[in-house]
Amino acid sequence: xxxxxxxxxxxxxxxxxxxxxxxxxxxxxxxxxxxxxxxxxxxxxxxxxxxxxxxxxxxxxxxxxxxxxxxxxxxxxxxxxxxxxxxxxxxxxxxxxxxxxxxxxxxxxxxxxxxxxxxxxxxxxxxxxxxxxxxxxxxxxxxxxxxxxxxxxxxxxxxxxxxxxxxxxxxxxxxxxxxxxxxxxxxxxxxxxxxxxxxxxxxxxxxxxxxxxxxxxxxxxxxxxxxxxxxxxxxxxxxxxxxxxxxxxxxxxxxxxxxxxxxxxxxxxxxxxxxxxxxxxxxxxxxxxxxxxxxxxxxxxxxxxxxxxxxxxxxxxxxxxxxxxxxxxxxxxxxxxxxxxxxxxxxxxxxxxxxxxxxxxxxxxxxxxxxxxxxxxxxxxxxxxxxxxxxxxxxxxxxxxxxxxxxxxxxxxxxxxxxxxxxxxxxxxxxxxxxxxxxxxxxxxxxxxxxxxxxxxxxxxxxxxxxxxxxxxxxxxxxxxxxxxxxxxxxxxxxxxxxxxxxxxxxxxxxxxxxxxxxxxxxxxxxxxxxxxxxxxxxxxxxxxxxxxxxxxxxxxxxxxxxxxxxxxxxxxxxxxxxxxxxxxxxxxxxxxxxxxxxxxxxxxxxxxxxxxxxxxxxxxxxxxxxxxxxxxxxxxxxx
Length: 640
Known about the structure:
Blueprint: H1 3-16, H2 22-26, H3 36-47, H4 51-58, H5 68-84, H6 88-99, H7 105-121, H8 125-140, H9 147-166, H10 170-184, H11 190-206, H12 210-226, H13 232-248, H14 252-266, H15 272-288, H16 292-305, H17 312-328, H18 332-347, H19 352-369, H20 372-458, H21 462-486, H22 490-493, E1 495-498, H23 500-515, E2 519-524, E3 531-534, H24 535-552, E4 557-565, E5 571-576, H25 605-615, E6 619-622, E7 631-636
Parallel strand pairs: 2-4
Antiparallel strand pairs: 1-3, 4-5, 5-7, 6-7
C-alpha cells in the first residue's frame, strides 16, 4: 500500500479510538473490506453495540493480511467484543497472548487497560491493579502529552479508584477519582468525565452515601448531554445505578422507572450480560414493591439472557434469587431445585461474597419449608463464608498495602540511585578538573622554581617580584576554581542576581580543564539582564552540558558557550558542539531518566540538568534547527 494510504488508515484507527469515525471509513473506496479495513469496521460495529457483527467482521481477516500492529489491534477489538458478550475467559486469553507479542506503547496501554477491566469483572482485583499499573507505565513511553495520552491517564486513574475501593481502600479510591476528575476537566473530555462520575457514584452507593451518589448520577447525565460521543452504554449504566440507589432508599416507583429506562436503552446495545443485569435489577425492585409475579417473569428473562454466560458470581446470584422468590411464593420443591442448581454453580468457583448470599437465602428457603437441619447447616455455612470473607478482605488489604509500600520503596530507591549517580558524575568532573589543575600547577611551580634559582644568583628585582606575584596569583585562582567546583556550601546554594555573560567568562578556565587539551572552548557572549540563580546550580548546569558535549565529540573538537536574550525576552545560555548531533527520533527521549545512547552512560546528565534549570524557573531544551552537532539552550527569566 502507498505510504499516504497507510497514513489514512492510521488516522482512521486513531479516530476510532476517539469514537465517531464512520465518515473516515466511507472515504475508502475498495472492492473488499479485508485486512485493516475489517479491523476498523469491527471497531465501528463494536462502538455501536453490535458485538456479534464485530466478531464476524474480524473473521474476514485473512492469515498474513495484517501487519504486526494491525494484528495487535485485531486482538484489542476481539477482546473488547468478547468481554461485552460475556466471554470474559476467552477475552482474557486473547489479550494476554497479544501482550506477549511486544506491542508498542499505545497498543500495550490499551491491552493492559482491557486486561484490567476483564480482571475486575472476574473480581481478581489484585491482578486488575497490576494491569492498570502496567498500562500507566506503557503511557510513560509515549511521546508528549497528547490528548489521547491525557485522556487515557485520567481514565486509568478512574479505574484505579474502582480497584482500590474493591480492595477496601476507599480513601485511596476517592483520591484516585479526584485525581481523574482533575486531569479530565481541563481536556473538555465530557464522555470521560461522565464515566468518572458514574464509577465514583458506584463506590458511594456501596458505601451507602446514596444522596451523594445520586448527585454524581445527575452530573453523569449532564456531561453525557454535552458530549459529542455516543452515550448509550454509559447512559444505560447510569440509569441502572439510579434504579439500584432508589431501591436501597425503598423508593420503588422511582427505582422501577429508572430500571425500565435502562432496559429500553440496553435492548438496542446488543450486550446480553448488561441487558440481563437490568432485568435482574428490575426483578429485585418489583419483588421489593410486592409484585412477585412480575418479579418472577423478569427473573426468568434474566436467566434466558445468561445462557452460556461464564461468570459464576452472576449466575449464582440469579439462581439464589430465583430460589428465594419461589420459596416465598410457597413453591418449596421448585425452590429446592433452584437451590441445587445454585450449588452446582458454586462448585464451579465463586467468591466468598456470592457464596455467603447463597447460604443466607438457603437458610430462609429451608426455614420456610420446615427443613430445620438443612437451615441450621446453611447458617453454619454462612458463618464460615463470613469468616472466609473477612480473611480474604484482610489478606487483600494487606497485599494491597504491601504492593503500595513496595512501589513507594522502589520509587525511593530509584531517586536515591539517581542522586548517587549524579554525585558520581560530579566527582568524575572534579577528578578531570583536578587532573588539569595539577598539570597547570606543576607548570606554575616550575616557573616559580626557576625564578627562585635566578634570584639566588642575581638577587630579587622589581621585575622578579612582579613575575613571582603573577605566578602565585595564577596558582591561587586555579585553587579557587577547583574549590568552587568541588564544594557546595550554603552560600553557593542561595539564588543571587547573576550576570550570565560574566558567569560564563568565569567558568571558562574550569571548562577548559574539564574538556582537556584536545577540545577548544570558546565564548560568544551578548549582554543580558541579571537572572536569579544559585551559583552552585549554574556551575552544575554548565558542567553537565560541557561534559555532554565533550563526550559526544569523542574528546576532541570545539565547544562554544553562548549567552543572550530570546525573542520573547528570556535570558539564555547555550552550549554547542561539533559532534554527530542527536538523531531526530531521540529528541523526545533525551530528558527521560535512565535513557542514554552511551555504552557507559547513566542517563541522568540531561535529566538532572533540566531539573536544575526548572528549579531556577527556567527550561532546558535541544535546539532542533542547529546542525551539525548539538546545541542545548537553558532559558532563565530575567529579574523584573
